Backbone:
């Protein structure tokens, strides 16, 4: 066996606090299973999209107690180097995934051992509550143990800065360096005076604020079907619904209790085909025409609406347009900026031009959206991957408060004999058809990320002159910066005024993703349905051509 690898394993074993993980690695060492040890040691988890995310397994390439311990030592070093007042504390939360309780315990113990005040969530709760608590308590940071919508075998570590947004460079590099050089930490106990559980009154402040701002006066019996997809959002979301005046919400019982195996789902992600099947069946049985879903940590929102032709699962952009339309109708909405990303629809910018807000476009991810307002206040920010921030009190995506905005809009439209689908028609009649879709190609194996990067590089070296018969008029390497944005890995292709494509690696999974939008000229003489149909035919041709070119 490779001597350097043996030394790496031995050093890890000396620091690993988990007896089962130690036994697993020792057995692999004794068996001389170099291939499996290489898988666990050759590509350690690093701070990516504001934290760590990966499979729960022993070794530095997995999420485990040792990885979490070292990451938290990195956080402590970052706070020390930045001169943060650690008496203000760090908010610590977790979801109900495999390993979350043990990883949460490690975070708490390391922070207390470093002399840092800890504000711990009393039980597994949604990620947005951590972001909210950081701002509400004026804490110096927040840590959430979650892998959001990833498969059941994964877990993760999400880090918020003092402004309640996810950390960005150079803070992530400081944390990463501290984790990489971490030694044996001092560990504290919850009996320490530095430890506090978050109180019910603080959690109630979140509920009361959003129920007051987005509630229905006098209440409503409007029927809604809700599913938390086996995650931790169920109880909190139902309490929000009740406080906001919704009497007709039917939860999907078989998906309501947290289940780390996500036993009724292939993937616990509202975007995935089939994820809402049980909710749609429940809606049909109860006579509901609206389905809302949270992902497992409740920071995302999925929506399906029943129309004359049956159920329609809304795209992330369509949900964003609907929520934006509701907030733009409220002149008293706190904030003066609306933002979205370079892979989201261009309609929001056109909507904002007609109102009293400023518009900002960011790189992908809420670590950028949350800071898009600069010196202003973010009234609304969204990304097409079902993430929505609807109020300045939470500087990150929040699928629960976004659900309240969407549901209230549905109730208001119903009062006029209209629906959310009618509002979408109204928006595209006003701003033109915006047809969008995604192409996602999963890479497998230890070299997955290298394969994805090679595919992006190949697209830059040999860019297409046309895609699906559509002329490509501009090709931009996003690593050189784009429209004043920081450099990022990816390629931007433009079809003149007719649309665009962005190809980039996923920030959370081993996938190559392409985001497409076509924006044909508005034709007031043609009905909306044939305009959409024509745009979607062209969009499909482009997507199929692009997928052939990108095949890994």
Residues:
């Amino acid at each position: 066996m490779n001597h350097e690898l043996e030394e790496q394993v031995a050093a890890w074993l000396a620091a690993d606090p988990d007896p089962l993980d130690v036994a697993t690695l020792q057995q692999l060492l004794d068996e001389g299973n170099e291939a499996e040890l290489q898988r666990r040691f050759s590509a350690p988890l690093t701070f990516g999209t504001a934290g760590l995310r990966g499979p729960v397994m022993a070794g530095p390439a997995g999420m485990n107690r040792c990885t979490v311990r070292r990451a938290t030592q990195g956080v402590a070093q970052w706070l020390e180097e930045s001169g943060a007042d650690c008496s203000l504390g760090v908010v610590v939360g977790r979801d109900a995934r495999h390993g979350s309780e043990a990883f949460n315990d490690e975070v708490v113990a390391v922070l207390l051992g470093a002399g840092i005040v800890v504000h711990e969530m009393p039980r597994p709760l949604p990620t947005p509550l951590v972001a909210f608590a950081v701002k509400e308590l004026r804490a110096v940071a927040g840590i959430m143990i979650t892998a959001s919508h990833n498969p059941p075998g994964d877990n993760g570590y999400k880090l918020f800065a003092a402004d309640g947004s996810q950390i960005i460079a150079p803070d992530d590099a400081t944390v990463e360096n501290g984790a990489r050089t971490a030694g044996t930490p001092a560990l504290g106990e919850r009996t320490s005076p530095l430890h506090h559980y978050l109180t019910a009154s603080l959690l109630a402040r979140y509920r009361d604020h959003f129920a007051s701002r987005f509630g229905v006066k006098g209440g409503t019996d409007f029927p809604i079907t809700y599913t938390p997809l086996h995650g931790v959002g169920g109880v909190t979301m139902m309490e929000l619904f009740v406080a906001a005046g919704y009497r007709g919400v039917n939860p999907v019982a078989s998906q309501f209790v947290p289940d780390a195996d996500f036993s009724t789902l292939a993937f616990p992600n509202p975007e995935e085909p089939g994820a809402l099947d049980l909710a749609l069946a429940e809606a049909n049985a109860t006579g509901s025409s609206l389905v809302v879903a949270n992902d497992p940590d409740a920071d995302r929102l999925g929506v399906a609406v029943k129309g004359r032709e049956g159920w329609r699962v809304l795209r992330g952009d369509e949900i964003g347009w609907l929520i934006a339309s509701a907030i733009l109708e409220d002149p008293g909405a706190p904030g003066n900026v609306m933002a979205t990303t370079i892979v989201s629809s261009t309609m929001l910018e056109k909507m904002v031009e007609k109102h009293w807000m400023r518009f900002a476009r960011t790189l992908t991810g809420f670590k950028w959206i949350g800071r898009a307002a600069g010196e202003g206040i973010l009234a609304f920010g969204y990304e097409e991957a079902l993430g929505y921030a609807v109020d300045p009190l939470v500087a990150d995506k929040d699928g629960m408060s976004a659900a309240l905005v969407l549901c209230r809009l549905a109730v208001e439209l119903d009062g006029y004999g209209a629906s959310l689908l009618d509002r979408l028609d109204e928006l595209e009649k006003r701003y033109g058809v915006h047809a969008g879709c995604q192409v996602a190609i999963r890479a497998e194996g230890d070299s997955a990320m290298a394969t994805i990067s090679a595919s992006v590089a190949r697209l830059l070296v040999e860019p297409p002159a046309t895609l699906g018969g559509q002329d490509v008029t501009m090709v931009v390497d996003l690593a050189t910066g784009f429209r004043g944005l920081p450099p990022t890995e990816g390629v931007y292709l433009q079809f003149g005024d007719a649309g665009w494509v962005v190809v980039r690696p996923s920030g959370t999974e081993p996938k190559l993703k392409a985001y497409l939008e076509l924006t044909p000229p508005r034709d007031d003489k043609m009905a909306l349905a044939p305009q959409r149909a024509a745009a979607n035919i062209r969009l499909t041709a482009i997507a199929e051509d692009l997928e052939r070119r990108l095949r890994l």
